[in-house]
Prior knowledge:
This protein has 203 residues and is α/β, with parallel strands linked by helices. It is built from six helices and seven strands; from the N terminus they run βαβαβαβαβαββα. Strand 1, helix 1 (14-24) and strand 2 (30-37) form a beta-alpha-beta unit.
Amino acid sequence: MVLKIGVLASHGGSNMQAIIDQIEAGSLAAEIVLVLSNNSASGALERARKHGLPWQHLSGRHHPEPADLDAAIRQALQDAGAEVIVLAGYMKKIGPETLAAFEGRILNIHPALLPKHGGKGMYGIHPHEAVLEAGDKESGATVHVVNAHYDEGPVLKQRRVPVEPGDTPQSLQERVLREEHVIYADVLADVVAGKITLPVRED
Ligand code: GRF
């Protein structure tokens, strides 16, 4: 089986790149059937073009009504034949129509050990600042299923890293990002191998 992946990304797309690398190396039996971004200047779209992947820029500029944008995103992903949706640094909330069409099949990566340090506003450097402020001894990366609430769906996998003395939010971010680049492809490989069955139903 070759897993068909749709990616949504807003910025650099290094997590998407890690998945592309695994696919191109032959160690992940998957295909990226569409890269969608709300940001026309995103590194993610640049990477998509570089690797010859289908891509689309869809944002409020094309669809000022959120419901129209949601419908366009759902349609594009379905037209591409995506079986699983990977959010890789996607800064927008997934709309209800897309969520319903792909229920239990939309995955997100978060740079902290959920349920800690998640939720609205916990993006970019903020979760790492929160980890240091809380005095946590460890942090890590979490891949989880997306539901209607930010960072709250069922956790599929986590990788932990220690918080080192003298860490800054940036040094912690770098350490966590290295784990992010492993964990997403791991989860997708588990889906391919049938170790994780999609859709994931909430308890
Ligand atoms: C990552 O830290 C990810 O956990 C978060 O956004 C960041 C995206 O980085 N959701 P990149 O665009 O994949 O490089």
